[in-house]
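Weekly structure sync, notes
Attendees: PL (lead), two postdocs, one rotation student
Agenda item 3: pending single-chain targets
PL asked that the sequence for the first pending target be pasted directly into the notes so everyone works from the same version. It is reproduced below exactly as submitted, 84 residues in total.
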Amino acid sequence: MLTLLLYNLHPRFHGMARQNPDLTESRQSDILIVAWVTTSAALITVAIKIFTRLRVVKVIGWDDFFVVFSMVRMCEANFEGIDP
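Predicted structure, written out during the meeting:
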């Protein structure tokens, strides 16, 4: 709802819904950039979490293994999106 509101109010997007989009060009590079930026932020967050658990709390919980496993899978998914 908020996205739709901002989409209609922002002058850059005003009237874009009526335009015919060019579906022949690839948006793969844009999507990969967004994926890697969010993955990088997640990697930094997970690294800080694991560092804190090791240095401050000195206990690794079972949930930390799932977080690291999820992070590895996310990186694998991002690498699969790259065409050679």
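Discussion points:
- Residues 27-84 form one domain.
- The radius of gyration is 19 Å.
Action: rotation student to compare against the earlier draft before next sync.
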